[in-house]
Amino acid sequence: MKMKFYSLLLCLAVLCCLPVQAQKEYFAPPKRTVQAVRTETPPTIDGKLDEPEWNNAKVMTDFVNTRLDILSEDQSKVRMLYDDTYLYFAIEVEEKEEDIIANIFKYDRIQLRFEDYFQIGLDTFHDGKQAYLFLFSPIGTRWDSREGVFGRNPSWDANWEVKTVITKERWFAEVRIPIGIMHLNREDDQTWGINFRHRYSITNNSHHWNYNPNSSMDRRASGPKFISDFGILENLDLANLKVQADAKIETYVSSNTEHAEGHNSLSLLSTGLDVELRISSHWTTQFTLNPDFGEIAADEGDVQNRDTARFLSERRTFFNEGAELFRTPINIYDSRQITDIDTAAKVTGTGEGWTMASLVLRGEGKRSGEDSSFLVSRYTQEATDKIQLGATLIAVDREIGENAVFGIDSRVAFSPSTIWTTQILQMNGSNSIDGISEVTESVSAHAFETELEWGTQPWSFELEFKKITSEFLPDLAFISRRDIIGPSFEIGFSDSYSHDVIEGVFVMAQTEHYVDHDHHTVLRDYSIFGGLSFQNDWDINMSYRDDYHIPFHNTSQSIGATYNRQDRFKSWRMNYSNGIFQDNTFDQYEVTKPFKLSPRWTNDLTSLLRTEKRDEGDRDVWLWRNESEYTFNWEGRIKLTLEATSDRAYKRTLLFAYEEVKDWDFFVVVNDFRDDDARGEQIIRSFFLKFIYHW
């Protein structure tokens, strides 16, 4: 109970701190506009900015500090040129070399959250709903993604180029982005949305080229809320654009040898093919034959008090293109439910006011079994500039019958910060009576969700009502709870200050209450989170949760501290929590320390200890995990992951990757792990070798 008291005390202290901020003098520029400038001579991409062509480009500057809502002290300057093939950007960033935080040397799937970076955002249809993001750090590390109405697709992978140069007082970058990799209108006199962002980690500031503090937009917004604050790029003549219509072909050969103690060794040789073809400036198609499903990067290891499945991101090549176009409020298409593919095809398209994505697939699913056929299709259309309508169809033909779900959804934007979404779904089909036999029964089920989110900075609100019947479980869905009816509500406050002591404050309270079809309470959650960020680089946070998930009543409270979160490899994270989980009392301690042994040798060490009080006696559960990675200056990297737990389980993984060597990728993975399952103790060692060739 003491922790509960302290958690509530911190939240009250946070609320008491809210008035300490003096009235801000907002800098509120109009939405900025820039004219595109065509070049006949492409600039050399070397990061030096010494080509005379840049003198013809317009200069975009006067960035706004979005944390303090004032003009930035450390400014950036951006110039842009284009031709029939590429967009060219020249960037100059005022940031001293000694203040730069850049630790990741390799383009990877890791977002640059803990790095200094510069971001280019392009809304190619100027509809405020979809955008392409290109991020790079001062040392040239790249990351890209595509924003959609219902989420971000960080797996989208584009081939673009950046070169950087760092000096004592500032750093420079030159960027070349193929226009043809994006969906767009191939016409003259086009208008796009455009924005730039500089993340300055040492001061925890973000600087935007176009940003209006009085627009009521949450500065941390993503998706359409984020895109709606873009500036305007005019006068793009794209009628003669060279769309990259050449087929992108990727083939692989892999060999995996696995040995379990007490069993014979198992070897597997596999090969497959992926083909991607850009049909037009609006359409892309993909074909695959026995695709590569090997995940080179290991999933994160942790110990969590959860009674629902963990959702892991999709990393398989075939599913990456257009992944954001399939998303809906209720997640009825989770590609990770597909475990094997014999052959598949997909087409995705985006135009002015519409999107479409469809795939057909023959393979195996977690719930559908082997030799199943899948059809997934989604279409959205703007009814007005504020209303978007969508329809989704998923059909599965399997050995034990069929399963199909159809749904319609709507999204109404009353303003950029006030959004109302609704989805209605109907599922019909047949399921195995006992989950094993081929004897089936007909199933008809439905789901409904409506959500209203609103609020003006620094406040945010979300109100949701959901109904999912007990038998609603489409074969490809990720549904954490079924047989529920009820509302949920969330209120949040988050703001930043120029106070001598306090840098930022956040408070969030959430509640959910669901009953089943007999009106019995099956889930009731209350939670409150609060935190303070101080100018001395310390962050303190507390939380309290009271959850009833039938039949268990769980409670937990925690207090945590982070030091120097702006610089990941100089930071410390510590957390203590206690409570009751599924009738067992626990105390948990966790420490995380990333560190660098050299500029190219990084480590992440996590230690966790949990003491559980059970009827049969106390039990200590501990886990430690360390990831050590070294990046060579010749595109190679080696990564060692070590993990051990109190139940004698362990994992040891050694990865060697040599990527983007002309048209080749090369991977070697060695695994050694011990685990206990229904078959008893298992010690397994494996060797995995893979070559990928890009045509």
Short structural description:
The protein has 695 residues and is mainly beta. Helix content is 3%, strand content 57%.
Structural class: mainly beta
**CATH topology category name of the domain at 22-236:** Immunoglobulin-like
Number of helical stretches of at least 4 residues: 3
Mean pLDDT: 84
CATH architecture label name of the domain at 22-236? Sandwich
Uncertain segments are 5-10, 12-28, 294-311
Biggest pleated-sheet summary: 24 strands, antiparallel, barrel
* Shape annotation: globular
Strand segment count: 39
Instruction: Just give the CATH class of the domain at 22-236.
Output: Mainly Beta
**Helical residues, percent:** under 10%
End-to-end span in angstroms? 63 Å
Radius of gyration, Cα only, in angstroms? 26 Å
Give the amount of beta strand, in percent.
Answer: over 45%
What does it look like?
It is a single chain. The chain is mostly beta strands. The strands form three sheets. The protein has a 24-stranded antiparallel β-barrel. Strands 1, 3, 4, 7, 8, 9, 10, 13, 14 and 15 form a ten-stranded mixed beta sheet that branches. Strands 2-5-6-12-11 form a five-stranded antiparallel beta sheet, with no helix packed on it. A hairpin with a 3-residue loop joins β29 and β30 (538-549).
